[in-house]
Design a protein that fits this description.
The chain is of the alpha+beta class. 24% of the residues lie in helices and 24% in strands. It has a 4-stranded antiparallel sheet with strand order 1-2-3-4, covered by helices on one side.
Length: 91
């Protein structure tokens, strides 16, 4: 996330009690240029694993500077149509 970005985050959990216990949630991240931008004006949207929720390009840059292995971060793109259908009306 760039310093000038604003992000909206949604937590996604499995609704089945038997799987919730042992599973970290997923997170949907919607990035915007400004906080006041309407939902459909996101610059990017992706799913991330719960274990990587707060990790991003800065984390990877730090790992590179320290000479440690760079952890791949899963960022599955959310297509605009799917974003509108699933996330637009969530408050």
């Amino acid at each position: 996330m760039a310093a000038e970005d604003w992000m909206q985050e949604y937590e996604i959990r499995d609704s089945k009690p038997e799987t919730v216990r042992n599973q970290l949630p997923w997170y949907a991240h919607f990035h915007y240029k400004q906080e006041a931008d309407p939902f459909e004006r996101f610059s990017q949207a992706h799913l991330k694993r719960g274990s990587q929720r707060r990790k991003g390009a800065r984390t990877q840059a730090t790992q590179e500077q320290q000479g440690t292995q760079i952890e791949p971060i899963l960022r599955n793109a959310i297509p605009p149509v799917l974003a509108q259908d699933i996330f637009r009306n969530i408050q």
